[in-house]
Design brief:
It contains eleven helices and two strands, in the order H-H-H-E-E-H-H-H-H-H-H-H-H. Helix 5 crosses helix 7 and helix 5 packs antiparallel against helix 8. It starts with 5 loop residues before the first helix and ends in a 6-residue tail after the last helix.
Length: 253
């Protein structure tokens, strides 16, 4: 029986780490010398393994050096979607509907699969997000920490397909809700509701309660969906009121 090459074994191990989300899209691998020492293999064998994964589109080398896990799937999905949805009415709500279901799955799996490192990262990002949400930071900054928090849960689900889909959905959503951000993060009472919902998600994940984690995630996304619907209705009423006033404005003498 022919013995498998060491480079094939290493390539398979790295591919498995990419598949289960241990190595995340965009993550940089340690330098070649360090990685070969840690894996206990020669640098030529490691280089060959990396080349095999690069040929599959799973790893890439960037200008300036370094080998990274590819991010290609999410961008290949999101770029055409952004072009398609750019001028479509209510695109953000269709995206939120999909996100609600996917986030429910992610929270369910995170409660079951999160490592100690994952759990620490979720808490850290939650605390940072809550701090920024309660500050006077710009709404775009608040969206970023919000997005990073949700991403920590998605990464902790250790499902590479889900991770790539959520990257694509997040890209599309962030490009369609900018007109509502100031309203979403404006009222302190509203922000406390959001923080409370996020904490409920974290608590369920830390308690390793998959059903509760899924339900809390879906409740939060349904709340966001209804809130954005309300913001849209208010904006339309305001525009219509202004238009009506301009139509019937009494001319100045």
């Amino acid at each position: 029986m022919q013995r498998r090459k060491l480079s094939d074994q290493i390539a398979e191990q790295l591919e498995g780490m990419i598949a289960d989300g241990t190595l995340k899209p965009g993550e940089r691998l340690p330098a070649e010398r360090q990685l070969s020492e840690r894996l206990g293999i020669s640098r030529p064998s490691l280089r060959e393994a990396i080349q095999k994964l690069a040929s599959k589109g799973l790893l890439s080398t960037r200008q300036g050096g370094g080998t990274y896990v590819a991010e290609g799937l999410s961008s290949s999905f999101s770029d055409p979607l952004l072009m398609l949805l750019k001028d479509q009415p209510d695109a953000e709500f269709a995206t939120l509907e999909v996100r609600k279901e996917l986030e429910g799955v992610a929270a369910f799996n995170a409660a079951s699969r999160a490592t100690d490192g994952d759990r620490e990262r979720i808490w850290t990002r939650f605390n940072h997000m809550a701090e920024v949400h309660r500050s006077q930071a710009a709404s775009t900054d608040k969206l970023k920490v919000d997005s990073d928090f949700h991403l920590s849960i998605i990464e902790s689900a250790h499902n590479i397909v889900l991770l790539h889909f959520m990257h694509a959905v997040r890209d599309v959503l962030e490009n369609t809700i900018h007109s509502y951000l100031d309203q979403f993060y404006a009222a302190p009472k509203f922000v406390e509701q959001i923080c409370g919902q996020h904490k409920a998600m974290v608590t369920a994940i830390m308690d390793r309660d998959p059903e509760a984690a899924r339900d809390k995630a879906k409740f939060h996304l349904e709340f966001a969906y209804q809130s954005f619907r309300d913001f849209q209705s208010q904006a339309r009423l305001s525009r219509n009121s202004q238009l009506y006033s301009s139509m019937y404005k009494v001319p100045e003498l």
